[in-house]
Each structure stands twice: as C-alpha cells, then as structure tokens.
Design goal:
InterPro entries: FHA_dom (IPR000253), SMAD_FHA_dom_sf (IPR008984). This protein has helices spanning about 110-115, 230-235, and strands at about 5, 10, 45-50, 55-60, 105-110, 130-135, 140, 155, 165-170, 175-180, 190, 205-210, 215, 220-225. By secondary structure, the protein is mainly beta. The chain is rod-shaped.
C-alpha cells in the first residue's frame, strides 16, 4: 500500500488529507513559528542602608548622598575648623585705640627725705625722675607682691620702707585725693614751697591734693602728681 506524506511530514494512507493532522496532502506546510527568545532579567542592584540617616545607597557607594556619611571609614564628615587651610579665617577684632594718659606721677629719690627717716637701707643715687602715666581714675601706690596678687600702678618696689599697699590716689578728672591704706610708715603730704612734713595724713581718710603738693612715702620716695605734657602724651600713642 502506498503512503503519502503530509506537509507536516506525517505518513498518511489517505492521499487527500493527512490521517494524522488532517492537512491536505497537497497544501503547503504552515511553518511553525520559532519560539521568541526571552531576554534575561536584569540582575538586582545590591543596596546598603546608611547607618546615620537610614537612606539607601548603592553597595559600592563611598559616601551617603543625603548626609555625607563615609561608608569606608564609618565616620561623618568633619566640620570646618579654624586650622583648615580651606576654612575662612575668623575676622580679628579691631585693635583698641591706645588710651593716652592726661596725668603722670613723677617718682623721685629725695635725699632730704631720706636724711630724716633714719633708714638702715642705703639711699640710691638721685637722678632723673621715673615718669609713670596715669590713665585710671584710681591707682595704688605700693610695692608689688606676686604671692599676694598686689601689682600697684605706682611701683615703689626698690624702697623697702613703702608698704605693699601704701596709699590710694583717686580723681574725678579734675581734682585728686590721696588716702593712706594703714601703711607701716605713714603717708605724708606737703607743698613744694614748705618744709618737709612731720605728721602723716590720717589713715583711711581722703585728703585733696593741691597743685603744688608733694607726697612722701617710705625711706626716700617723693611723688609729684601733674598733668602730662604734649610731648609725654605723644610718646604714649
């Protein structure tokens, strides 16, 4: 018995229609479409969570884009410091203008005062006075003591007859007063035209100074309070 082959390749006894699939023996075979190739799914991107702000970031990210957390060192970015070269340096405050003292105190070694004090210390050689600018309205006369925190504006440290806190000078801008601070040897005041004083001023009481008064303290120290000259003021600027 002869057989025929259908367009799909099935052997068929029937010569008009395929015994297997029913296709006409003489019809052209309908090509079976090839299966579509399915593209492989993209691999999932590995992620990590920022321990500082909890935002997500790629697993290979070096820094968190939200807060700047450094995944490699486990630290937050350091705030700018004044030591950083890239940081803007702080603006320095303007330097205060120097205060020009309107008054000065001349500190003299007075041999006449030394002669009546009967001090055992040798008297220094008289010379030019030490000129001390006075810019404050209250100044201390005495000898310094680091242990006691005493730093007088009018330092008579070379005269051991002067107490640490000898006297206080105060002013209202025009007039001056002197007050003895319970000193050991007393504070004396006398005009330049008169004799040396013999009686100290009462401790704890302010005494107003006249323009030609002299203040005597210690074994040889004489103080003269006067207005500063223009040259002295220019030298302070």
């Amino acid at each position: 018995m002869s057989t025929a082959t259908c367009p799909s390749g099935h052997p068929s006894v029937s010569t008009d229609y395929c015994d297997v699939c029913g296709l006409p023996i003489g019809a052209a075979a309908t090509p079976t479409p090839a299966p579509q190739a399915v593209a492989p799914a993209a691999p999932a991107v590995a992620m990590q969570t920022c321990p500082n702000c909890s935002d997500s970031a790629a697993a290979d990210a070096l820094f968190c884009e939200s807060c700047g957390y450094d995944f490699t060192t486990g630290t937050m970015p350091r705030a700018a410091s004044s030591l950083d070269l890239s940081a803007t340096p702080p603006t320095a405050p303007p330097a205060p203008s120097p205060v020009v003292a309107e008054w000065v105190i001349e500190r003299w070694v007075d041999p006449d005062w030394y002669a009546v004090q009967q001090s055992d210390d040798p008297c220094p050689s008289p010379g030019l006075p030490v000129v001390i600018p006075v810019a404050e309205k209250s100044v201390l006369v005495g000898r310094p003591s680091r242990s006691r925190g005493i730093a007088p504006e009018v330092d008579c440290g070379d005269d051991t007859g002067v107490s640490r806190r000898q006297a206080q000078l105060t002013t209202d801008g025009q007039r001056w007063w002197v007050e003895d601070l319970q000193s050991s040897n007393g504070t004396y005041v006398a005009p330049a035209s008169g004799p040396l004083p013999e009686i100290p001023i009462p401790p704890g009481q302010r005494q107003e100074l006249n323009s030609d008064d002299r203040i005597y303290v210690g074994a040889w120290t004489r103080l003269v309070l006067r207005r500063a000259t223009p040259e002295e003021q220019a030298g302070q600027a």
